[in-house]
Design brief:
Keywords: Signal. The protein has 3 helices and 12 strands; from the N terminus they run H-E-E-E-H-E-E-E-E-E-E-E-E-E-H. By secondary structure, it is α+β, with helices and mostly antiparallel strands. The longest helix is centred in the C-terminal third of the chain and has 16 residues. The radius of gyration is 22 Å and the shape is globular.
């Protein structure tokens, strides 16, 4: 009886935790993603995005302690336009059009009444330091004939980065995986123009972000528990 209880305890410890996914739609007040499981990041004219003190997962349940805070302003003079993808396909298939169509953007030098903001950024706080987080970004600006490549950098206790071809993009997504929160349980995201961006204003974009917790591999204790349990059973018999 004792070995059975011990085996059950080891199995409980070894069972992987369920993954959690958080979806964020950046952009226009008039085109929010009003379906369960999406968090809308918008701003009033002339004001930065307010901190999201309640963040929901993809089932519509609040994730305890997690917030999203803008730390480096994007363009905030007027509402962002809705010039992103209306036809997500390929790796972006299944993403809601309300999220792929609008965006936050920034620029190098003054533009449209806005000051120079060659980088834009935000951070997630209240994350679990025992988990790794995987990021998916979608960046799209359609109806253009130049290169508006966008760069993303994700920083916790480790760093990941990547580039995405934003111009007329309907299908490409960028994934950055395995980022661990820092000592403050935070992960910071920075967005900027990529090295191949040849737009005169250096426009860069973030339409949406998905953040998922990586599911841990089953603990080696599972095998140990099974081995030990079988050994105890043989001895008993």
């Amino acid at each position: 009886m004792i070995w059975r209880l011990s085996l059950l305890a080891c199995l409980a410890i070894a069972t992987p935790a369920a993954a959690t996914t958080m979806n964020f739609d950046f952009g226009n007040n008039g085109r929010q993603t009003n379906v369960p499981g999406w968090n809308n990041v918008v701003h009033d004219n002339g004001s930065p995005s307010p901190t999201l003190f309640v963040v929901f997962d993809d089932t519509g349940v609040a994730v305890p302690g997690v917030t999203l805070e803008e730390t480096d302003e994007f363009y905030i003079v007027g509402q962002p336009s809705q010039g992103g993808s209306e036809s997500p396909a390929g790796d972006a298939a299944g993403l809601p059009v309300d999220a792929t169509d609008d965006y936050y953007f920034g620029h190098s030098g003054a533009f449209g009444g806005g000051d120079d903001n060659p980088t834009g950024g935000f951070k997630l706080t209240g994350l679990d330091q025992n988990l790794a987080y995987d990021f998916l970004f979608f960046s799209s600006r359609t109806g253009v004939n130049d290169n508006r490549e966008t760069a993303f950098s994700v920083t916790g206790s480790n760093v990941g980065s990547g580039l995405t071809a934003t111009s007329n993009n309907d299908s490409e997504v960028l994934t950055i995986s395995g980022i661990m929160p820092d000592a403050n349980s935070e992960i910071a995201i920075s967005v900027s123009a990529g090295p191949n961006n040849d737009n005169g204003n250096g426009f860069y974009y973030v339409n949406l972000m998905q953040v998922s917790t990586a599911v841990p591999e089953p603990a080696s204790g599972l095998l140990i528990a099974l081995s030990g349990g079988l050994t105890a059973l043989r001895r008993r018999r």
